[in-house]
Every structure is written in C-alpha cells, then in structure tokens.
Amino acid sequence: MSLPQVLIIDDEADIRALLELTLGRMNIETRSAGDVASAFALLEEYRFDLCLTDMRLPDGDGLDIVRHIEEHYRGLPVAVITAHGSMETAIAALKGGAFDFVCKPLNINELRALVRSALNLSKQAPSDGANAAAKLLGDSQAMKGVRALIERLARGQAPVYITGESGTGKELAARLIHDLGPRAGRPFVAVNCGAIPEQLMESEFFGHKKGSFTGAFGDKDGLFKTASGGTLFLDEVGDLPVPMQVKLLRAIQEKAVRPVGSQQEVAVDVRILSATHKNLHELVRTGAFRQDLYYRLNVIELVIPPLRERAEDIPTLAAHLATKLSTGHPLPLTPQALATLKKYGFPGNVRELENIMERALTLCEGDEIDVADLHLPGQASLHLVEEPVEGPAPFETPSYTGEQSLDEHLAQVERAAIEKALRDTHQNKTAAARELGITFRALRYKLEKLGIE
Fold it and tell me: Which of 63, 186, 232, 322 qualifies as a cystine partner to 270, CB 3.0-4.6 A?
C-alpha cells in the first residue's frame, strides 16, 4: 500500500525541512518546492494527497496555488500557512477553496491534526450527492443548488454561516456538512445559543474547574471540548450577548479555550458552523453583533430557501413525512389536498408542514388525506368534544438542598416547569413552549438536554 504524498511549498528552507521531518515521522512522503513555478511543475508530474503552501512566495502567493488547484486538481485539499494574526489572508484562502489554514510559528500538534484530517478527506470516495439528496429532499433548482454547495463545503474546514427562516432545515444542512466531510464519525454538537442563560454561557461553552464558583462541585467539559475533533453548530448565534461574542471570537481564532477557574488554556480542534433566522448584518449595523465575529463566522454563506419559494417540492416532502410519521401504512394525499398545500404560504416552513401532516394523519378517518383533514389556518376551526378532566396540580418549585450543586438544582426546577407545561397542554410541545415563554426550538433543546421523553 503506497504512502500518502504531500506537496510542501515554502521559500524558507528551514520551514520546508521542519515540515518534511514532521510529516516523515507520520509515515508520509513529501516533495518540496520553493516557489509557485516549481510547485506547478511538481503538480503536473506527481499525484498528491495534500498540498501545504506558504502564503508569501517569491513569484506569487498561496492564493495562486489555491486557485490553480481548484481549477485543475479539484479534490486535492490545500492548506495554507499564514503569518500569525493574518486572519484576513486566511479567510481569503478559505473563500478561494482552501481546505484549512495553520499559523506561523507552527504548532506541530495543530499541524498533525490538520494533515490527518486532510488525508482522511483524500481517502473518501467522491460523493454523487445521493447522501445529501436522501436527507435534504426536493427536486427544485433551489434545493439542487443547496445540495451541490453542501457537497462542496463538506470537503473543507471553512466556517459556514447558514441562514434561512425558522423551520427551513438549517440544522439538517449543518449535519450534512459534517456527515459528508472528513469529520464524519467524530462528535457533532449542536447548541441553541438563545436557550442558555447568560450567566451560565461561559461555563457551557468552555467548561469549568471544581470550586470555580458556587455549585461547581466537579470539573466539567464545555461544548468546545465535547466537540473537539468534530463540529460545533451554533444555532441562533445572533442571540449571543456581546461579552460572550468577544470570548467566542478569541476561542475560534486561538483554537483554544480556558475553562472557568483555570489558568491554563486547552487546545481544541473544532469546525464551526453557525445559523440564525435573524438578519445578522443588521445586528452588526446596530452594534448588537460584533463585526469581527461576523466576518469570522460568515466565511461562506449557505442560504436555505423558504418552502413557499419551492412549492414543487411539497408533494415529495409530504409523502416522505407521511411515511415517517405513520405507524402503519401511510395515507396518500388527494390531488386537491396537494394543490391546497402548494398554495399555502408556510410561515413555519418544513417544520410547519411536518406538524400539519402529523395532525392530518392523527385525525383523518378515511383512506386518504383530503383538504378538510389539513386544518390549515383560515379553514373552519376543528372542535373536539372532550370529557372534562381534573386540572393538573399547581407547579411547585423544588426546594434547594445543600446536597445539590447549583446546576443540579436549576436543572430540577427547569424539569419541573417543563413537565408541568407539557401536562397542561396534553403533551403539545408548541403550546408548552408558548406557556413557558420560550421558542419551540429552545424547548426542544431543553428536552434533549434534560432527557425528557
């Protein structure tokens, strides 16, 4: 079995020697060039699994290498070596198609992790898009474009900013970018930034040490550490308070976090994906979101179109949801029902379509779902006659005991409030979220975190 082949491009002989030695110890064969022209000649003569290039070269720069490989050797990962603090240069390379970047002075452990990740990508068979098509449904031109871009984004490490209305499938798109890339099989950690209390944010993201604050009775890994080696998806990133934005920016740029109460930084290797339904550009303009963090997160933007702009996808989505939600044989929709759905505006997008299909499948008494079974807003209201039942017991706040940590007590209070809201609304999550004064997505995050079925 042949050894991996890496092309090294740097005009400094000592840097080339360091890279050759480091990769040689990883059982990797290397060839080196000191300028752009020599690099192009080697690319024509040999097949490589990875290219490592400096940004400043005597007859050009690393962006020339990136563009040349993107045009002539697509599929070959390129990582650029930049001067420390030259984030604009690194971002330009990522936008141009670079796989990742590493800063001088070189951190050998960081370099090794980058090389391993890139070589893992080279081993992957080229995807035909079938994986993305199976999970992100739709034959519209808009969705074909989204799937094609996801396939391309999955092969890099650039931060991706996913934008779209609530319910369009931003988290699904993030999961696909992770699953189709070299980090597949490593952790995918999704966090709803709007669902974490501000006073607990630093501990949630970066972890804490035992005794660092009241109730910290043990060490705790944060989300960055949990996702290390994989992907961290920051949903509703526009809800982050400004002080936390500063700390998040530093963690992303330094690729390290400092747990609360610790004097030492911990290196982390995560790919950052983020999303929001808010207009982040407008938040930057008003000062509610830091411009430097915005440009760090929004290296590449992925726009998920609303369902009303791809009505031709509704029959496929409805049929898929009917199969997914049915306990037995899925009920088909009548042509009239499909026509009605295609004319509906879907302010809640695909998530609303799923709710409509679940309600229709539950209440339909025939062999197919008709217009009346959809109960869309504007249709005649559905009246159910129910036997009066005794109301649930009033909510009682669990008392705090000294045997509990503060985190444990807060979780117990939160659990009790959520369980009461679910009882009051007969397990209707949308209504329960409304009663609790939080978004449906925030409730879903809390249900997963607390393990509430």
Answer: 232
